């Protein structure tokens, strides 16, 4: 009898958990909604810069062409603290010979350098671009994303990528999606083209139907969808994240690299 | 709690079919042996966690697939013939190992936290991995609880035809793994179900 009671408790707990999720237990949708209300528009809103951080607000656009250093938006990071330029930390060692860029968030450290990116080999084709090699994006801040259009979590990242694409449209920034299909129907180019159009993926896509690059860029044999890298102007990996999330960290990394380009690498 | 929710959410992901299809097979084949459910969940948890940490990351080559598929077919046949808890547990653990090994996860926010941190803090990510798997396999938990709480439901599982369906699924998985075609089956199911 006790066993049956315990089983009933487990049963109801399980059903309750499923119901809880079904009615919105996962907060991912809320996160996307937050993005849609806070994503930067392409029109300048730098006049609306607030003097104090707004923990619940996302970034507002700060047009580097006309913004004053003192007006850089401290609300761009949830963890940002208000600092005057005089309080700002010294630039990272690799950047000391560069002109300090006034709009850089003084609270953000230089992103870790994971070393040179790998090449993209045996690409089956390119969409949304005339490029035929990843080398043609050298010198830009490049967001590389391993994805496939049938992957739920990859699709969840797309609105965020769109916001970066809009926000940094006039900067030295590009996105490159490496499409690595999980299933055979995702390898069909016409399906990829249709999905890219439906999903609003307007940035360059490299087709990796055999997942050669998908696996080569991910150490070991455990590979994940999605996986996001940011490559700096020297071709070094400066950001590496598996899965959804960390969108603000990614935005700050892109902004940092745009505003604080590394010293040219003599080897490159 | 969020990791459990994300595990439940992942039920609707095509990437999860590689784990869910064989799980359904072993549960149907195992009848009322509810212990198979924790064996399944714990085995897949351990394999996934070991892969996340990088401690277990061997190449799943074609030869390994063929060997694993054939071994699995043999094990399923023995489990069917002997119809004992021990052989069912061995078959369940083996299928779970294989499924966890070949699984390529689609990574959400919470699972992302695990896989991004697992190499630096392996032990801290073991329990969250378990809760993710618990959420993902919550249908198995519900079926097992139903079998115990409602004996008439368990009687359905005793039907030899149901058990044969379970064996058929396991045999199909084993055969497709051996032929390295299991991903194609999952993909076709995903496409037809409009994931």
Characterize the structure shown.
The complex is a heterodimer of chains A (about 270) and B (about 200). With about 270 residues, chain A is of the alpha/beta class. Chain A has one domain: Glutaredoxin (3-Layer(aba) Sandwich). Chain A has six helices and six strands, in the order ααββαβαβαββα. The radius of gyration of chain A is 21 Å and the shape is globular. Chain B is mostly helical and about 200 residues long. At the A-B interface, α1 and α3 of A face α1, α6, α8 and α11 of B.
Number of strands of chain B: 0
Distance N to C terminus of chain A: 73 Å
Shape of chain A: globular
Q: Label the structural class of chain A.
A: alpha/beta
Percentage of β-strand residues of chain B: under 5%
CATH architecture descriptor of chain A: 3-Layer(aba) Sandwich
Shape summary of chain B: globular
In what order do the strands lie side by side in the largest sheet of chain A? 1-4-3-2-5-6
Helix/strand order of chain B: HHHHHHHHHHH
Question: CATH superfamily name of chain A?
Answer: Glutaredoxin
> How would you characterize the largest beta sheet of chain A?
6 strands, mixed
Number of structural domains of chain A? 1
- Ranges of chain B with pLDDT <50 over ≥5 residues? none
Cα-based radius of gyration of chain B, to the nearest Å: 16 Å
Q: Give the largest chain-chain interface (CB within 8 Å).
A: A-B, 43 and 46 residues
């Amino acid at each position: 009898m006790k066993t049956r009671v315990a089983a009933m408790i487990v049963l109801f707990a399980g059903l309750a958990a499923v119901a809880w999720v079904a009615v919105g237990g996962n907060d991912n949708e809320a996160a996307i909604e937050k993005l849609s209300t806070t994503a930067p528009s392409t029109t300048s809103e730098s006049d609306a810069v607030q003097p104090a951080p707004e923990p619940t607000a996302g970034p507002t656009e700060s047009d580097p062409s006309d913004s004053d250093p003192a007006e850089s938006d401290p609300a761009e990071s949830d963890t940002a603290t208000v600092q005057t330029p005089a309080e700002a930390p010294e630039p990272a060692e690799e950047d000391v010979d560069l002109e300090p860029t006034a709009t850089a968030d003084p609270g953000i450290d230089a992103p870790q350098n994971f070393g040179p990116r790998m090449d993209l080999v045996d690409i089956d084709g390119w969409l949304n671009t005339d490029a035929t090699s990843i080398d043609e994006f050298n010198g830009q801040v490049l967001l590389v994303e391993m994805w496939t259009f049938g992957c739920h979590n990859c699709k969840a990242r797309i609105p965020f990528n769109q916001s970066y694409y809009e926000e940094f449209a006039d900067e030295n920034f590009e996105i490159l999606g490496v499409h690595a299909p999980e299933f055979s129907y995702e390898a069909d180019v016409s399906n990829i083209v249709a999905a890219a159009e439906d999903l609003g993926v307007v940035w360059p896509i490299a087709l990796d139907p055999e997942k050669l690059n998908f696996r080569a860029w991910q150490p070991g044999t455990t590979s994940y969808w999605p996986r996001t890298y940011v490559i700096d102007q020297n071709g070094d990996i400066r950001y590496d994240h598996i899965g959804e999330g960390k969108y603000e960290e990614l935005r700050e990394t892109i902004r940092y690299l745009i505003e604080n380009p590394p010293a040219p690498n003599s080897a490159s | 709690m969020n990791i459990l929710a994300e595990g439940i959410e992942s039920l609707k992901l095509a990437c999860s079919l590689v784990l869910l299809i064989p799980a359904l097979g072993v549960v149907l084949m195992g009848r009322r042996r509810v212990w198979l459910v924790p064996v399944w969940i714990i085995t897949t948890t351990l394999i996934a966690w070991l892969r996340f940490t990088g401690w277990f990351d061997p190449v799943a080559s074609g030869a390994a697939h063929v060997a694993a598929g054939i071994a699995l077919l043999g094990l399923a046949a023995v489990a069917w013939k002997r119809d004992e808890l021990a052989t069912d547990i061995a078959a369940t653990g083996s299928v779970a190992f294989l499924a966890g090994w070949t699984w390529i996860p689609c990574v959400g926010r919470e699972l992302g936290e695990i896989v991004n941190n697992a190499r630096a803090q392996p032990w801290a990510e073991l329990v969250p991995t378990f809760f993710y798997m618990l959420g993902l396999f919550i249908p198995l938990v519900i079926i097992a609880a139903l079998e115990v709480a409602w004996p008439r439901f368990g009687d359905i599982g005793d039907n030899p035809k149901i058990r044969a369906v379970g064996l058929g699924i396991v045999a199909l998985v084993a055969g497709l793994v051996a032929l390295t075609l299991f991903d194609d089956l999952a993909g076709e199911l995903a496409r037809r179900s409009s994931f």
